[in-house]
Specification:
FAD/NAD(P)-binding domain, three-stranded antiparallel sheet, alpha/beta, about 400 residues, about 40% helix
């Protein structure tokens, strides 16, 4: 997609709508297919089999093909369904493509959005674009949003570096404690003039007041975001340097706050949210506990006995990254799990070797010609919700593979 077609000559740091990014990826893919003279089979893959000769059988509804190697790029995992609403015609389980899915909602409806992450905000904006006359309710357990994407100054890190990580691993038998990583992070912030505890107290709760403050007082917060985003590509290295106890501790005590700062919201979206919030077109409810289904509406229950009725519910709770056989999964994922070709990873996704991305199977061991990419390996490639991280790692995997040939 030529960005000039959309009216932009400089696309740096601009937040484009997801459909535009999809158009861009499709154009790049089409050109790559043409350059490589690749064969495209437009069918869903339903199963894999490993043969005694080491090759892999790939099954689709109308054919079975044999391949020397396979890259498994299945995209997002199935969406969570925390209130068991799947199948209700007024419940939009997977909200994408949004413009298509949201068309079923008539003007004047009361619409609940479950979740306050980036997907929920996408739904809010799309609803306002398609059907302005409706009441929107964000409902969740916390009621908090992530942080505003602000200007990030150019900087170089002194403490939170891959070099320091590797040196510490050599001294500590391949591991680095979570406490040492936190120490490095605090020193990094201090060296750049950031009082970490004060900044977190000021901006780390995701409240309406904090979002408003971030829009006008964000210089130091921009430095904090820059530190975190400088770490992005090496997050898997830090994650894999933790022992199992420290991984659990990080997830329980720090992950929520870290991701709240890392997964930021474009300023334009925050301005929309605050404007519609102030005008009463959008409301936010926390402490969500239950959903009761009725023929033409839902009743949402909150702690303290509060109730809210809506006509439609949109699921924006994200994907279920704890991999197991499920009715929500694709046939391919369920079949490969059932045959123990893929093995669940305790910290989400499935197991692979790192950084080679070869599948690790309970039944077959390391499968050196089955490569797994994307969200399904987030339990090892921590933080891989970044397109840049996925692209860079895929390039490395393919480059090493070509070098071996």
């Amino acid at each position: 997609m030529d960005r000039r077609k959309k009216g932009y000559t400089d696309a740096a740091k601009i937040h484009f709508p997801r459909p535009w990014y999809g158009e861009y990826l499709r154009e790049v893919m089409d050109q790559a297919i043409q350059d490589l003279n690749a064969t495209v089979i437009l069918e869903k893959v339903t199963d894999l089999d490993l043969l005694e000769n080491g090759k892999i059988l790939v099954h689709s509804p109308s054919s079975v093909e044999e391949f020397d190697l396979v890259h498994l790029c299945v995209g997002h995992m199935a969406y969570q369904d925390p209130y068991d609403l799947y199948g209700n015609p007024r419940y939009i389980h997977n909200p994408y493509p949004a413009e298509e899915k949201l068309q079923i909602i008539p003007q004047g409806s009361r619409v609940g959005i479950i979740g306050t992450g980036l997907t929920g905000l996408d739904m809010m904006r799309c609803l306002k674009m398609l059907k302005e006359d409706m009441k929107i309710y964000f409902v969740s357990d916390t009621g908090r949003f992530t942080t505003v994407r602000v200007h990030e100054p150019a900087l170089s890190l002194q403490y939170v570096t891959l070099e320091n990580l590797e040196l510490e691993k050599q001294r500590q038998n391949g591991f680095v404690s979570l406490d040492r990583m936190i120490e490095w992070f605090e020193k990094e912030c201090e060296s750049l003039g950031i009082n970490l505890s004060e900044t977190i107290a000021k901006f780390g709760q995701g409240t309406k007041e904090q979002l408003e403050r971030q829009l006008i007082d964000n210089e130091k917060f921009g430095v904090l975001q820059a530190i975190i985003h400088h770490m992005d590509y090496y997050l898997p290295n830090y994650w894999l340097a933790l022992n199992e106890i420290d991984k659990k501790r990080y997830r329980q005590e720090y992950k929520g706050l870290f991701e709240l700062i890392r997964t930021s919201i474009p300023q334009e979206t925050v301005n929309n949210l605050l404007t519609w919030w102030d005008s009463g077109q959008v409301s936010v409810f926390k402490d969500m506990e239950s959903v009761t289904e009725f023929p033409t509406e839902f009743e949402i229950g909150f702690s303290g006995g509060r109730k809210l009725k809506v006509d439609y519910l949109i699921n924006s709770t994200g994907q279920n990254k704890q991999i197991k056989i499920s009715k929500y999964n694709s046939a391919l994922l369920n079949n490969t799990l059932n045959k123990r070709i893929l093995q669940p990873e305790p910290f989400d996704g499935v197991q692979v070797t790192w950084p080679d991305s070869c599948a690790v199977s309970q039944r077959y061991g390391v499968i050196e010609n089955l490569f797994v990419h994307g969200q399904i390996i987030e339990g090892l490639q921590y933080g891989n919700n970044s397109a840049g991280m996925l692209l860079r790692h895929a390039e490395e995997v393919v480059r090493k593979l070509v070098e071996k040939m």
